[in-house]
Amino acid sequence: MNTLDTHINKKLYYSTVIIVITIMIMGLLIDNPRFGKLEMGFISHSVLVVVLSVCLLLYPKHVTHVCRAIIMIVASVYFYTLFFLYPDTWSNFIFLCFIPAISILFFDSKLFYFSLILNSLSITLTFSYIALVDQGHLYPYIKRDLIGNVINFVGSQVIIYFIFYLSYGRMKRQQLYYEQIKQSERLKTAGQLAAAVAHEIRNPLTVVNGFLQLYEKDSSLSEGIKKHFSLMINELNTAEQVISQLLSIAKPNKDHETETVNVKAVLQSVTDLLHSYGLLHDNKIEFNMVEECYIAANKIEFKQLLINIIKNAIEASGVGESVMITAGRKKDFVEIKVIDCGHGMSEAEVESLGTPFYSLKSKGTGLGMMICYNIATKYKGTIDFQSKKGEGTTVTICFPAKHL
Ligand code: ADP
Ligand code: MG
């Protein structure tokens, strides 16, 4: 809860504190039966007023858990001291009931539970003292109906708890909303950055592509070399498409046509493409698919989804471990499974997938899964993760099958 409650409105805070201090000084000086007598009671009352005032005035400069705890403890000591110094002022008992309410103002859940427990213990001791030692001599209004007073005290703590519970929940939701706005702002900046970078990369790509196309037509070059050129041109085209995809996060592009995609052919080309990437750490990609199946999607986008997920599986795998890919029809769906025996993920990590910039890799962008989920949603598909820390991950990708 740091961002919200550290930005406390100082003007409002200081005005409230000045009013509180004025009331405390009034309590000390006006019609006080102990006023003017140099005895322990009046001195401790005065000292506590000064200490509590200083704590409250210094708090905005030290917004920490420790400071809040100190204020709560000093406030508790102050109210209990008043209760014992002025037994005739029965309304002091009301303050004792509402001590934990002070901690609600700090929106610190640990502090609230701490003050609730501390206050319950203190009131138990106080009531025991009144019942056993004082025996209603100084506090007849409590002793006369001890049980009733205990019930009232418990009731007041329950009310305070509900006030805290409801306002804290609301505050948390507001905090979440604030975080989301901040994140979408960040995403917008990333989108603008991506657009700028993509623009700069596109130009050299177009130049290289143009020259390669020229050489491809050169009759003095052998067919073997020309084959490499067409491969390079293909790869450059893919790179260009990937850049467009990245741009689509910032600026959703409606131009991509939905076509009939041959899943087996796309998976084959993706595994071929990633074969050399896997070899870096001696990871093999085992691809197993018998039947032909088709889905309705954009081929480039579907390819990008598979590349992201299979790349993640390779990156999670240890040296020499293989990544298994299976695919087939399951009722009206085409189901693709990407299985790795890598480092896996905890439940919390799986839940964070798809959050922009969530990455545990030193050079990760944390955008891969977000793009994948966007593509899957666009074509009514789903991506499901089953993972266990240290054991590996199975990603199940499901798309509605297209009947030819
Ligand atoms: P990036 O790959 O750039 O880090 P992604 O969105 O593709 O971003 O993935 C986000 C995070 O999810 C990764 O950093 C990784 O920690 C985790 N992750 C994704 N796939 C797997 C997997 N198969 N096994 C283990 N962790 C994974
Ligand atoms: Mg990735």
TrEMBL record:
GO molecular function annotation: kinase activity
Enzyme class: transferase
Listed EC numbers: 2.7.13.3
Pfam families in the record: HATPase_c (PF02518), HisKA (PF00512)
Transmembrane segments: 12-30, 42-59, 66-84, 90-107, 112-130, 150-168
Reactions catalysed: ATP + protein L-histidine = ADP + protein N-phospho-L-histidine
Residues in Histidine kinase domain copies: 196-403
Alphabetically ordered keywords of this record: ATP-binding, Kinase, Membrane, Nucleotide-binding, Phosphoprotein, Transferase, Transmembrane, Transmembrane helix, Two-component regulatory system
CDD domains: HisKA
Keyword Cytoplasm belongs to the record: no
Domain of life: Bacteria
PANTHER family noted in UniProt: C4-DICARBOXYLATE TRANSPORT SENSOR PROTEIN DCTB, SENSOR HISTIDINE KINASE
Protein name per Swiss-Prot or TrEMBL: histidine kinase
Organism of derivation: Bacillus lumedeiriae
